[in-house]
Amino acid sequence: MLSVPSTASDLKFKSMLVTFRKNERLRLLREIKALFSEGSNLVIKPLKTTWLLHDQNDGSKVKLMVSFPKAMCKKATLRNKIKRRLREAYRMNKNILHDTRIPHGKSLLVCITYTSKELLSYSEIQDKIILILWRLKEECGKVV
Question: Of 2.170.150.70, 3.40.50.620, 3.40.50.2000, 3.30.230.10, which CATH number belongs to 22-143?
Fold first, then answer.
């Protein structure tokens, strides 16, 4: 059930939760290298998730990168479509992961890679992303 915000400040807070700002994107090369060299894997077909608790450099607690290898689909338009769906599904459900207790001075680096040649609908991708976020929340709870 969707709750209606009572004040303008509530509205601003709720709209901030469903954004995907630049500081939430994983884009620094040293963080990406650390993620793939030291990170753990979580597979929920057709999505492979690599994650790592890493020393934090800026204000964001969770940083995300999405990937769809060219080997899986040669057409850039289809790859971009899937990546948009992945980002949108994360954006709409990231509150699951943001409720996780992440230690002070750390950030959670996440890469979601689409590993199938067949294209899934947005609703199927969203179901997989929700499952991944819950599993990541459990895994981070074990590490902390």
Answer: 3.30.230.10
Cα separation, 77 vs 88, in Å, equals: 16
In angstroms, the CA 75 to CA 79 distance is 6
In a 10 Å sphere around its CB, with 0-12 CB exposed, 13-18 middle and 19+ buried, how is residue 127 labelled? middle
pTM over 0.85: no
Residue whose C-alpha is closest to residue 110's, from 124, 89, 127: 89
Q: Report mean pLDDT in 10-residue bins for the chain, 144 residues.
A: 47 59 87 92 93 80 91 92 93 84 82 92 94 90 65
What number of other Cβ atoms are within 10 A of residue 95's Cβ?
Answer: 10
Which ranges in the chain belong to alpha helices (H)?
8-17, 29-38, 76-93, 95-98, 122-143
Distance from C-alpha of 12 to C-alpha of 46, rounded to nearest angstrom = 35
**Which residues on neighbouring strands pair with residue 42, listed in sequence order?**
49
Note the pLDDT tens digit of each residue in 44-65. 999 999 999 888 767 678 889 9
